[in-house]
Amino acid sequence: MMISVLVTDGETRAALAVTRSLGRKGCRVVVGGRAKNVSSASKYCAKAYYLPSPMEDEEQYLHHVLNIVHDENIRFVFPITEPAVHILSKNRHEFPKGVITAAPEWDKIMIAFNKVEVFKRAEHLGVGIPSTIFVRDREDFFTKEHLCTTFPVVVKPGMSRIHTSSGFISTKVVYANSAEELRACFEKIDALNYPSMIQEKILGPVTGLFTLFDRDRHLALFSHRRLREKPPSGGVSVVSESVPLDPEMVDASARLLSSIGWAGVAMVEFKRDIRDGRPKLMEINGRFWGSLQLAIACGVDFPALLLDYLRGKRPDGSIGEYKTGHKLKWFLGTLDHLIIRIKNDDASLNLPPGSPSKFRCFMDFLKVWERNTSFDVIDRNDISPFIRELRNYFQNRD
Prior knowledge:
Strand content: 15-25%
Number of helices: 13
Number of domains: 3
Largest sheet: 7 strands, mixed
Shape: globular
Number of strands: 18
Mean pLDDT: 93
Distance between the termini: 46 Å
CATH superfamily of the largest domain: ATP-grasp fold, B domain
CATH architecture of the largest domain: 2-Layer Sandwich
C-alpha cells in the first residue's frame, strides 16, 4: 500500500528536497504551504494545499493541517520549518491514531531550539564554545555590559523563533563593533528582552554535521562546509561542499544530542577557530536544513532514512560513507550574494576570511554546469520547481 506523506512549508528548499526524496521512494507526497510554492510544482507532488502562516495563527495552522491529514489519509507528517516543528510536535496528540509526526518529542525540541540551554549544556560537557556571556533579558544586560571589553561581538537571541501568546517573534543574529552599538542593540531589539547570548566572533570555516540520531548514537552522518552565504557576512548557504567527517565534531555532537535524548534528524554547526584549531559550537538545528539536497546528492538520503527509522527500520551500510568534494549551488542564492557584494563595499560586509572576490563570484555565477556540482532547485528531470522559483523571485522583486 502506498504511504501518504504531508510535507509542510513547500516554499522552502528543504521541503523540495524532502518532496523529491520521498516521491522517488514511492510515497504519495502531499505538499502544504504558501500558494504556488516550489515544492508543489514538483512532479513528485501528488496534491498541494494552502497553509496559513504558522508564525501568525497557531490555531488556524493546526486546523488546516488536521483537515489535510483527514482528507488525504496521511500517515506521516514531515514539518520543515521551526514554527511548524514547534506546533505539530506540541499538538501531536491531536492527530488521528496511527499518524506519525516526523519530529522529536516536544520536551526535546524545546531544549534543542533553546540556544542558551544548548550552549550551557555544551559548556558543561566540555564541548568547545565561543567565549559567552549569558543574558536573561534587557535589564540583565545593563548589569553585565561592563563585562564586554573586546569587540566585535555576536549577539544571539536564545531562540530563532520566540513563541509568545500572540504568535512567534522572528529573530536574527546581530553584530556589534563597539560598546555603543551593543547597548543600542539591547535598547532597540524586542527579541533581546528575552534570553540571549553575547559571544566573541569566531573566525574560521563553518562546518555542518548532519545526523540521524537515535537517543545515544548516530545512525547516519554527513558533513559539509559553507563556501558562500547570504548575507555574505554569514547566513544561509548558497554554495556548499561535502567534506570528510571530523571525529571531534562527531563526538561533540553525540555528547550534546545524547544529553537531550534526541531522536531524529539534526544539523550541528561548528566553526573551526583559526586561533587554536578547535571546532567551536555555533548551533543545533533540530530540523531539516537548507543544504539537505547536498547530502542526498552525495548518497545520504536523510528524508528516506528518517521515514525508515520512523517505521522501525535501521539504516543499512556503514555510517559516514559518502561522496566528498561535491558542491551544491542555490542558483538564485548565488545571484543574491553577488548583488549584495556589488552594491556594498567589502569592508562594510564583515566578510569571513578567505571570501572570494567580487570578480570570482561573478565568474562562478556564470558557470551554469560544472563537474562535481549539483543544484538544489534546478533538476533536469524535475524542472518545474526552478521555473516556479524564477517566476516567484522576479514577482517579489517588483
